Predict the 3D structure of the following.
Amino acid sequence: MARAVRYLARDAGVAQFLDIGTGLPSAGNVHEVAQSVDPAARIVYVDNDPVVLVHARALLTSSPEGRTAYIDADLRDPAKILAAPELAATLDPSRPTALMLVAIMHFITDDEDPYGLVAQLVDALPSGSHIVITHATGDHLTPDEYAAAEETNARSGVPFRLRSRAEFARFFDGLDLIDPGVTSVVDWRPDTPPEQRPSVEDVSMYCAAARIP
Ligand SMILES: C[S@@+](CC[C@H](N)C(=O)[O-])C[C@H]1O[C@@H](n2cnc3c(N)ncnc32)[C@H](O)[C@@H]1O
């Protein structure tokens, strides 16, 4: 997330971010990373977890030049997100926005239309906007490890859908992938030497960023 936000703010000239599946605030939230490059950056956070909502105040600590907002909403209801007054009050709909879907799409099952949800959000953004997705995969697991992962996921009670490289790449159909294209998060524009990075297998998470034409 941090490497992608830095790239977008610094090299792609993106100053607006819609971060869906924000998670609990921690060190280096999207607005802190973006505003360290561009203090005027504007960020809208979205999550459906009431615990995240309770901690949302920590996300509303924008620089004076920028702005942040929080929407308590579900990715599976993109119309609610797009119609939220907080979105209209924070992001200029005529300016490029980066849609951040970092470690959230694997919670969307096939019958919840993951590709359709992403397309609805992408279609609402102006040309020159960007999208970043990271997604858990079982591609690097042995069959036994895969079966064990599926069993653990089923027992957790939280729907979880590992997707293959091809299934992940489909989210970017019709968009202009940014170099290096679909890759492990470990290898996406790394800023640490190889020996300091975790292994592709241990992370088992794809990443890609694309420009919306
Ligand atoms: C693994 S965390 C990722 C947090 C952050 N993006 C990161 O990478 O550090 C996933 C987040 O997505 C949120 N989430 C899961 N399903 C969601 C949905 N359908 N709508 C909105 N948020 C959702 C969860 O509440 C959680 O905060």
